[in-house]
Design goal:
Shape: elongated
Strand content: under 5%
Strand order of the largest sheet: 1-2
Number of helices: 28
């Protein structure tokens, strides 16, 4: 029974498969539904039967494909051959059509068409060159536009563009100049950063190669730059392309000189701004660092421009800027580093107790047995700036030592570096400060005297500075050839300048008193006492020379002699002034009283050390001239003239003649010789005779 059922299922399944294979796809649905409607598992057996049937068909299909494969390949090959032939046929067809098309036109029409075609191509090509003129927005396009305009300038459409070309040139220059101004503003703001990078590069080079390393901050080849390229060179921080492009634009437009002048003018202005420090710069080290970084950054940029462009800046221009910067830097540093001098009161240091005395001598090596024996309170001869300067120099030496230690040099080399650096500090910085201090208007005679005293003590302290360097470097001066400090010459130079300034100011002060003189040159007789202005002058000289007691003897003596000679010369010039036409005998008598006071001052030994009447000899010319006129001793003068033993040896005939001429005119108008004429009617004739004889002597001297 089971076998029969199985056969029935197989027969039924076979029928269904045959029906599926032979029936249209749309009618398969009912057939398949009949299988699934069966409640038994007939559909599973059907699926197995279906899989078997599918595999049988697959094998049949494969057999058929294998059988017909070669035929398929041959058919494809034939088809490809046909395609090639079809393409050839198409080419021949097109040629035939083209020949037929040309045969319908005349030769003239063909030529005209070809000309039009060529013109159209040329027009498109040339217009494409002008496209930057429409969409220009970069420097490169501006430059390309200038070149393209030249290439198409002979075409008709360029006439219109030519009319706008001046405006276009102006616009190009304005835009390029605008970018240049932005560049200048940018480097002004970032010069400190550029300088900082350059300074770091230099420091790294010094550390690696020593103080003699060949350093360069520009773009020219530099082995140091090769070694430290990883750190980033200073010029890498700046984009110089705006300068290059603007330079090329102006050169193409034939206006390079204008650009060069503008660039140099603007950079010179920026240099002045860079060199102007902030008001608070001197308050912190960072302020100084930023100031110097800005200056270095400025010159790094200029050095790059110098080497990267041809003639935009010259070596002479950069040297001019550097000289300007150097003088400004010195002035700035001097302004903020001579505060020690500005705060000094230029008077001896008072010490009231032993503690105060010990405090001063702990800062400055002062030793004076006489002063040490004095009771308190007492005064030290130098002013307060001396220990301050000495302390500052020692601090500089110590700071230089700390710096040199990082260079990994030997003790001998460090010792030599310290001495050379200290010499530069003394001979350049300190000496320059002292020289400028001496020339300042507010520094008077008292201050100058104190400066001379101060430099004397500073000069004596130089040996202690050398000992200080020896102690901190542990290099004995006997073991090696060491550099000596130049402090001796520095302070000697400053002292000589102060001495010369004393002589100058002293003479200027004498001139101020002389200008107050108000002689009544026609007075009939003297007042019987010296003039007020001269007595004031004598008192001033006395008080001034009292201050000179602390000066070296030679300086005080030279100043005193210089003052007396200048006073005598000024008085003589007053008598012989060509503007003074008449002098009476009464005026001569008054003048004689003033000269007597000068001689008394000279004989009072205002400054010790003069031998005999050395100081009075400053007035000998005046004394002999006045005696000649007061005594009216012409016969003796004329008889002894030219003799070494002459009483009036210092009276020049020309001087006597000039003064006598002034008195002769007065005698005629004021009748001052009336008393002589009563006693001797021939007095006037004698004057005329003396005048003639004096003229003869003067003429003989001139011949």
């Amino acid at each position: 029974m089971a076998e029969n059922e199985m056969l029935e299922y197989i027969t039924e399944h076979e029928r269904i498969l045959q029906e599926i294979e032979s029936t249209d796809t749309a009618c398969v649905g009912p057939t398949l539904r009949s299988i699934y409607d069966d409640q038994s598992n007939a559909h599973k057996r059907f699926m197995e039967k279906l899989d078997v049937r599918i595999r049988n068909h697959d094998r049949e299909i494969e057999k058929m494909c294998n059988f017909h494969h070669q035929g398929f390949v041959d058919a494809i090959t034939e088809l490809l051959k046909v395609r090639t032939d079809a393409e050839k046929l198409m080419v021949r067809h097109n040629k035939t059509l083209l020949k037929k098309w040309f045969s319908t036109f005349s030769t003239e029409e063909v030529i005209r068409c070809r000309i039009q075609q060529r013109n159209m191509a040329t027009t498109v090509e040339k217009l494409q060159l002008c496209i930057p003129g429409v969409t220009v927005n970069t420097f490169t396009q501006y430059f390309t536009l200038l070149l393209s305009v030249v290439q198409v300038s002979h075409y008709r459409f360029c006439q219109i563009m030519g009319e706008n070309l001046p405006h276009l040139r102006k616009e190009i220059k304005e835009i390029s100049m605008s970018d240049l101004k932005d560049f200048l503003e940018s480097i002004r703001k970032h010069s400190d950063k550029v300088g900082e990078t350059a300074m770091r590069q230099v420091w790294n080079a010094v550390v690696a190669f020593g103080v003699n390393a060949p350093l360069g901050l520009g773009l020219s080849y530099n082995p140091i730059s090769e070694q430290f390229s990883g750190l980033g060179l200073a010029q890498d921080l700046v984009d110089f392309s705006p300068v290059y492009r603007c330079l090329h634009i102006y050169a193409v437009l034939g206006d390079r000189e204008t650009f060069e002048n503008y660039y140099r003018k603007q950079r010179k202005k920026q240099a002045r701004l860079v060199l102007q420090p902030q008001a608070s710069m001197h308050e912190t080290v960072e302020g100084y660092r930023r100031y110097f970084n800005q200056i270095v950054g400025f010159f790094v940029v200029e050095d790059h421009i110098l080497h990267a462009t041809q003639g935009l800046v010259t070596r002479a221009f950069t040297s001019e800027l550097w000289n300007m910067a150097l003088s400004k830097i010195i002035a700035v540093l001097r302004t903020h580093s001579v505060s020690i001098f500005e705060l000094d009161n230029y008077s001896p240091i008072p010490v009231d107790t032993e503690e105060e005395y010990n405090l001063v001598v702990s800062r400055f090596p002062f030793h004076d047995t006489d002063i040490e024996k004095q009771d308190f309170p007492k005064k030290l001869p130098m002013s307060q700036s001396v220990p301050q300067i000495y302390t500052q120099v020692k601090e500089f030496i110590y700071a230089s030592l700390k710096f040199s230690e990082s260079l990994h040099r030997s003790s001998t080399e460090i010792d030599d570096m310290l001495r050379k650096s200290t010499n530069l500090l003394l001979t350049r910085t300190l000496n320059s400060c002292l020289q400028n201090l001496i020339k300042k208007p507010h520094i008077g005679l008292t201050e100058l005297v104190q400066i001379i005293i101060n430099t004397t003590h500073l000069e004596q302290a130089c040996k202690y500075l050398e000992e200080f360097i020896t102690n901190i470097t542990n290099v004995s001066p006997e073991t090696v050839h060491t550099t000596r400090l130049y402090g001796l010459s520095t302070f000697k130079d400053a002292r000589h300048s102060a001495e010369g300034e004393i002589y100058t100011k002293l003479n200027q002060k004498i001139d101020e008193f002389i200008q107050l003189a108000d002689y009544e040159w026609g007075m009939s007789e003297s007042d019987g006492r010296a003039s007020g202005y001269l007595m004031d002058l004598i008192n001033f000289l006395r008080s001034t020379f009292q201050v000179f007691t602390h000066l070296p003897g030679k300086v005080a003596q030279t100043a005193c002699m210089s003052a007396c000679k200048h006073l005598a010369t000024s008085l003589m010039q007053m008598l012989l002034d060509t503007e003074l036409k008449q002098i009476s005998m009464g005026a001569i008598q008054q003048f004689n009283l003033d000269v007597i006071q000068c001689e008394l001052f000279a004989s009072s030994e205002p400054v010790p050390g003069f031998q005999g009447d050395t100081l009075q000899l400053a007035f000998i010319d005046l004394r002999q001239l006045l005696d000649l006129f007061m005594v009216w001793d012409w016969s003796t003068y004329l008889a002894d003239y030219g003799q070494p033993t002459s009483k009036y040896l210092r009276v020049n005939p020309a001087t006597a003649l000039a003064l006598l001429e002034k008195m002769k005119d007065t005698s005629k108008k004021n009748n001052i010789f009336s008393q002589f004429r009563k006693n001797d009617r021939d007095k006037q004739k004698l004057i005329e005779t003396v005048v003639k004889q004096l003229r003869t002597l003067v003429n003989g001297m001139s011949s």
